[in-house]
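G.,

No rush on this.
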Amino acid sequence: MRVMGVDPGLTRCGVGVVDGAPGKRLRLVHVSVVRTAPDEDHALRLMGIEAGIEALMEEFRPDAVAVERVFSQHNVRTVMGTAQAAGIAMLAAARRGLPVALHTPSEAKAAVTGNGRADKAQVTRMVTRLLALETAPSPADAADALALAICHVWRGGAQQRLAQARRSRVEEAARAERARLAARSRGGSVQ
């Protein structure tokens, strides 16, 4: 499975692409940061992030996209930009019909370090080790994007199977309900 991890940000949006499967060796495909200038018009910054993410999705063709779940921060302005960048990544994935998973920072940290409260240096060290990289990904946004991708490779498969099972149950219930209503409209007995 090829997963694109996105650590959303308005100034620096980390993007990491990893190939792997649970229990198998991970392989780095790509890592970079989509950057926008803080003094640029806000709408143009969002367009820049979209263009960067779209180009990377087109080039690397992920099977799934893992985005960091945005949570409340003290700085509302920062969280708004982060949420907007996350939305752009989700929209780009949806345009391609790709499944999107949201992982919290603590989930990604726990997946790669075993500690949901690990600091950025620990996450970077473990991402470097897990992907057998000669040099650590930099800046931290790049390492965080890779941690999200790794988290999804290891945990996302099970989550996707559970989600599919839920969808199947819902679809089955919907079919049963449509059959019940059709029988009712034909004058048959409804139980």
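When you get to it, here's the other one too:
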Amino acid sequence: MGLLSDGGPAVRDRIGRAIFTRVAGPDGPDSRARIHGTPGPRWFGPDRPVRRVHGDASMFIGGLAALLHQSLHPLAMAAVAGHSGFRGDPWGRLQRTSTFLAVTTYGTADSAQRAVDRVRAVHATVRGTAADGRPYRADDPRLLGWVHLAEVDAFLRAHQRYGARPLDAAGCDGYVADMARIATALGVPDPPVTRAELAARLAEYRGELHATPDARATARFLLLNPPVPLVARLPYGVLAANAVSLLPVWATRELRVPRIPPAEGLCVRPLGTAVTAGIRWALAPTREGTVPA
């Protein structure tokens, strides 16, 4: 009783700040204030679906699922393995990604465009040769399209399963359309604007997708050897198991990730809902969502 009435809010605040700092970095509070406090027009109004999805704790699961799914394109995986340095600085990469999502989702139109321009400048320098001898470029429209599709699909699936307020059918289409605005700015040609179009475009990539040794190593890193403190291993494991449950069965087979479908409904998803709700509870006092929102 004393914990809830006296220490509860303080405990929740400490947990929330620890999570927020991990995701947004030490400059997260300043970034959040700048993103929301700078006056000016935005790409997305306050009622747009993208704001609801990106501000929900379900993004923790969606983000992991997106990384696993994206790794199944050999050229995209080669670019990540050769240039991102995600293993040496996984939290830094997460913080840069979360800040980009926050700026483009909630920031002014000018700051969103500047964030996009920075990403495009980086993409222009990333090129090389995959293990199978094929050249790759991070600004290849085909690769940009795959990364975008896998990300949108994972974020939306996670939100619909674990989000506090799932979207209706129109809202799902609205989210895909909102994300198409960002994708177009990043150089993705003709991105989908409805959920049906998203599913059709994903299917078009199926013949190009398979797990390389780098993709399987990435899955092992993310699922078995995550860069999280010992005390966070159990909740992280729950999030990871639920991220796997969002993937197509063929994808988990390619990555050699074990899954037991009957167990997903009995315990994996309920635990995922509980952990996501716990993260949402911890972040609620200061409205610090999964991005610096």
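The chain has a mean pLDDT of 91. Strands lie at 127-129, 135-137.

Enjoy the weekend,
O.
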